[in-house]
Amino acid sequence: MGDRLTGKVAIVxxxxxxxxxxxxxxxxxxxxxxxxxxxxxxxxxxxxxxxKNAGNTENVRFTRTxxxxxxxxxxxxxxxxxxxxxxxxxxxxxxxxxxFGPITEIEVDDWDTTFKVLVRSVxxxxxxxxxxxxxxxxxxxxxxxxxxxxxxxxxxxxxxxAAKAAVVNLSKTTAVELAANDIRVNAICPGIIxxxxxxxEKPEQAEEVVRELQPLRKRGEGSDIASMATFLASxxxxxxxxxxxxxxxxxxxxxxxxQGRFHNSRNLHRMVGIxxxxxxxxxxxxxx
Length: 288
Ligand SMILES: NC(=O)c1ccc[n+]([C@@H]2O[C@H](COP(=O)([O-])OP(=O)(O)OC[C@H]3O[C@@H](n4cnc5c(N)ncnc54)[C@H](O)[C@@H]3O)[C@@H](O)[C@H]2O)c1
Prior knowledge:
By secondary structure, the chain is an alpha/beta fold. It contains 8 helices and 9 strands.
């Protein structure tokens, strides 16, 4: 595809499925060497087999990793150095839907597991990446998958949304801390992306939600997140750090969706003109 990541070494967690998998494929096409860390060894093996068929296994390794366990994250980071000699990019992306249900019923263990997989993982991924990148002294790019659920109250369960909000803030605080070492840290906030996690084998339901709530007609795919991750990983983004990058087909921009709901604004798209509020001046308009 290109050479935007030529010579760079990347770790992608959750790389055996969904947007992580799409990013692994894109990073390889852009010239990077990639360590894929995922809990699902079966999917990891399937990924390696597919890459082998495509004649591309030289620059990729899979390691079964639980991103919430520090020894696993340290071993995954060590594997990057052992295999490819350096580390430039870490995409902390693995995730689960986590605890759901009424706040009055959620079990503490389920809450804690959600935070371990979604937040502790990003802390550990960042900690071990920085331990390698700082002495390497050539900067680096850390990218964390948050969610539009972390930016408001209406897009996910409580634990998931709160955890993703924590990921956004952790991205900002570590971006400030690591800037002195030219290490950039950014969060990606996906909207509805058609991956196994999101549609849980009921894509038609997800498509209905998208039709109603998402301004752009295209449905979100893993490749849309891979595009943003590739930009943030590349030197093209060398002045971009500490931000949340929303990739949601315009969903958050549509905001409260009040427009068009009042009786007299239903025909707005068929009229053009100006109103003057309480000034006493007459509104003027014409029908289109
Ligand atoms: N799909 C969406 O609409 C959407 C929207 C916003 C954010 N996200 C986030 O995007 C990220 C990727 O999700 P996806 O949609 O590609 O889902 P996915 O289920 O297709 O992929 C997630 C991967 O993470 C792995 N994983 C889960 N827990 C792990 C652990 N403890 N250690 C290592 N690997 C683990 C899974 O095995 C899986 O391969 C997640 O952080 C998710 O919360 C997804």
